[in-house]
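Case study B.
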Amino acid sequence: MEITSPDFRLITKRLILRPLTLSDADDLFEYQSVAEVVTYIPWPQRTYEQVVEALAKATAASKLDYEGDFALLGFVLPEENKVIGQISLMYKSKENQTAEFGYVINPKYSGQGYATEASAAAIDYLFSTGKFRRVYAHLDIRNSASEDLVKRLGLRKEAEFKEEEFFKGEWTDTMIYATLKNEWINR
Ligand SMILES: CC(C)(COP(=O)(O)OP(=O)(O)OC[C@H]1O[C@@H](n2cnc3c(N)ncnc32)[C@H](O)[C@@H]1OP(=O)(O)O)[C@@H](O)C(=O)NCCC(=O)NCCS
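Model:
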């Protein structure tokens, strides 16, 4: 099934990953409005209106057909029927068959491996499309929770960049962690 279908699902041991809809705004507001959550991601601490606006934009554009496309999946705890975090998937290069992924979890649900589980399912999915041979995450070097997550996934550190980005008012060092399809399958 295509990721653009509202019925698209990735099922893991404890979670369901699915396309977000506008009715998820309350769940997203619960974490997108928290200062600590957005410290290392390129959004402001969002108001409810900003959550709805970003959600409407992302859901309208969500697809992974061509280079530059972007898809967003929420991960849901089935027993609570609640979106507790989100995974972003970005089609970075057709020629180089490369995708980027990102992840955010509601801090109320962190520390239980949910973001790692959702990220692993997203990487499985990216490779299953046959479009990608390399998947990477781009991290702020200070984001130790994020680095722990990519290490848990078994991704390989590829690069560290000095002052790569002028981010939220300061020059910021960043890192790339990646995996190739054959490394991922044989991990
Ligand atoms: C990065 C982020 C998603 C990590 O969240 P997290 O809750 O630490 O990650 P997980 O949900 O995978 O949980 C991992 C923790 O659960 C523990 N855990 C418990 N059960 C587990 C299981 N079954 N599997 C894996 N880990 C498990 C791990 O040991 C780890 O604990 P630790 O933090 O004490 O080492 C979160 O900090 C976040 O949303 N940050 C803000 C957004 C952001 O910066 N995103 C990254 C942009 S690059």
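The CA atoms of residues 38 and 45 lie 6 Å apart. The remaining cases will be described in the next quarterly update.
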